[in-house]
Specification:
Number of helices: 10
Strand content: under 5%
Number of strands: 0
Radius of gyration: 19 Å
Distance between the termini: 55 Å
Mean pLDDT: 83
Largest sheet: none
Length: 187
């Protein structure tokens, strides 16, 4: 969509994006419609389209904002933790699986599946989400062999266990499975 006239007001657009991200973190993407979103944000669908161009662009920016927020939380956590302890798989597992991050995880998994079925709606498709996690693995987790295959294996195990935890609520079992995996990779 090509806009004619004045560009959107940056501060209003930024505030709308922040509130839209909060809304999506709370409600998810499934069935997201501009009319209820606009009503919840105290704006109109017309203003959402004026500010973001399309629903797809709004969703892309909401997902990017959610990733920025999560990265900021990770950075903040790293600054406040013991550097040697903060790089262990178990410590990061506890951080990433904490209750306050559940909305981010739910949104991630929802967007990941959506990107698999509709890659045209997401910049880089699901592959971009894999790259996000690979960069976290490479920079945060201490592994003896930080090659792409090891990082991919770690991502697969952590993602699978997080999805299992979200689906079942079984923290003890998933924590035990992660501990078993950590033992295997430390040998």
């Amino acid at each position: 969509m090509t806009r004619k006239g004045r560009p959107p007001n940056r501060s209003r657009r930024a505030a709308t994006l922040a509130r839209a991200t909060d809304y999506v973190l709370q409600n998810g993407l499934a069935g997201l419609s501009l009319r209820p979103l606009a009503a919840a944000l105290g704006t109109s669908t017309r203003m959402l389209l004026y500010d973001f161009g399309s629903k797809e662009q709004l969703v892309a920016e909401v997902l990017a904002d959610a990733r920025r927020r999560e990265a900021a939380l990770l950075s903040e956590w790293r600054r406040g933790s013991d550097a040697s302890d903060a790089t262990t798989l178990h410590t990061i597992w506890n951080w990433i699986g904490a209750e306050e991050r559940v909305p981010f995880l739910r949104l991630f998994f929802e967007a990941y599946v959506e990107a698999l079925t509709h890659p045209e709606r997401y910049a880089g498709g699901a592959a971009a989400m894999v790259e996000d996690w690979l960069s976290v693995i490479a920079s945060e987790w201490r592994v003896d062999t930080p090659d792409p295959a090891s990082a991919t294996l770690m991502i697969a195990v952590v993602r699978g266990l997080l999805l299992d935890r979200l689906a079942t609520g079984e923290t003890e079992r998933t924590d035990a499975a992660l501990a078993r995996f950590a033992e295997l990779i430390e040998r």
